[in-house]
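Summary of Year 1 activities. Much of the first year was spent building the evaluation harness for sequence design. The harness presents a backbone, in tokenized form, and records the residue chosen at every position. We chose the following record to illustrate the format because it has been used consistently in internal testing since the harness was completed.
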């Protein structure tokens, strides 16, 4: 005789079955743990997410989604919807965040000359810092037809075949070409560097000493964007202009027994070390500018 007890009828579970939940998603709320219900009240969990997990389980009655059409793929590739803050059409411009003096002089009487970051160096720093905030500055050299800049100097300095040349401006305004942009987030940035200082409104006195005021020019560019720009969040950064300071010079002992050429090489090595120290300082100051801009975007709910 068998010791097994045979079940004479099927017992229905007390909890809702999968087909019932798929038919009535709202019933899931009645059977969630209290801690999950607290999350729902705070907006941290949605029933739709939980129910969507049931549709992939064998036996679920949900229909299989239709394959995406080419039109749907094209729509997904389009830039994200413009944020509500930009609905009015005008640009929203961040203040110029002050990190670094942004002022310097070059010429024959300058004892502690400045070191300038290159455009490529600055763009790399900006891209890296904004990537940490989730931005992809994929578009470069984007022309803004609505924002026009009129150079104040009648001349500009250009580099041709490695040589600096002075060319005369024609006096016409030019559309602003911003360095980087995240097209999906509608965020654009411009870095006021030595190479585009005059083009962006800096002045060049006709003397042996050239004074730079990158911070003032960056504020003027930000003002032009605020007045005429459309449809983007903007940040303007400036060259921090750290100075090359010779805190240490070669000692007599280090120069002892060296010929003139060897002594010159030692002095040049000390100079390059001081220059690199100044460049390191400028990189750090620019990073702070970009970090402040990212924080400004967060405070506005953009990130």
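For this record, the design step produced the sequence shown next.
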């Amino acid at each position: 005789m068998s010791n097994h007890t045979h079940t004479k009828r099927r017992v229905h579970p007390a909890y809702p079955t999968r087909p019932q939940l798929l038919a009535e998603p709202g019933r899931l709320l009645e059977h969630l743990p209290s801690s999950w219900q607290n999350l729902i009240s705070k907006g941290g969990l949605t029933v739709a997410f939980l129910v969507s997990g049931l549709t992939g389980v064998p036996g679920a009655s949900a229909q299989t989604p239709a394959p995406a059409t080419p039109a749907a793929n094209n729509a997904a590739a389009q830039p994200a919807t413009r944020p509500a803050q930009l609905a009015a059409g005008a640009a929203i411009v961040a203040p110029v965040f002050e990190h670094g003096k942004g002022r310097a002089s070059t010429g024959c009487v300058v004892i502690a000359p400045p070191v300038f970051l290159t455009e490529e160096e600055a763009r790399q720093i900006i891209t890296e810092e904004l990537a940490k905030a989730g931005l992809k500055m994929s578009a470069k050299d984007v022309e803004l037809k609505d924002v026009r800049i009129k150079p104040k100097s009648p001349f500009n300095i250009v580099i041709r075949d490695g040589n600096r040349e002075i060319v005369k401006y024609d006096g016409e305004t030019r559309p602003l070409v911003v360095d980087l942009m995240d097209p999906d987030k509608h965020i654009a940035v411009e870095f006021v560097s030595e190479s585009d200082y005059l083009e962006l409104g800096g002045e060049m006195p006709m003397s042996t000493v050239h004074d730079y005021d990158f911070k003032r020019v960056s504020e003027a560019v930000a003002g032009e964007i605020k007045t005429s720009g459309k449809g983007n969040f903007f940040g303007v950064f400036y060259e921090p202009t750290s100075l090359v300071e010779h805190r240490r010079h070669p000692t007599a002992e280090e120069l002892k027994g060296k010929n003139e050429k060897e002594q010159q090489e030692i002095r040049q090595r000390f100079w390059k070390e001081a220059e690199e120290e100044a460049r390191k300082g400028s990189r750090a100051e620019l990073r702070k500018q970009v970090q402040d801009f990212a924080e400004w975007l967060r405070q506005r709910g953009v990130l």
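The chain has two domains: 18-65, 84-299. Quantitative recovery figures across the full test set are reported in Table 2.
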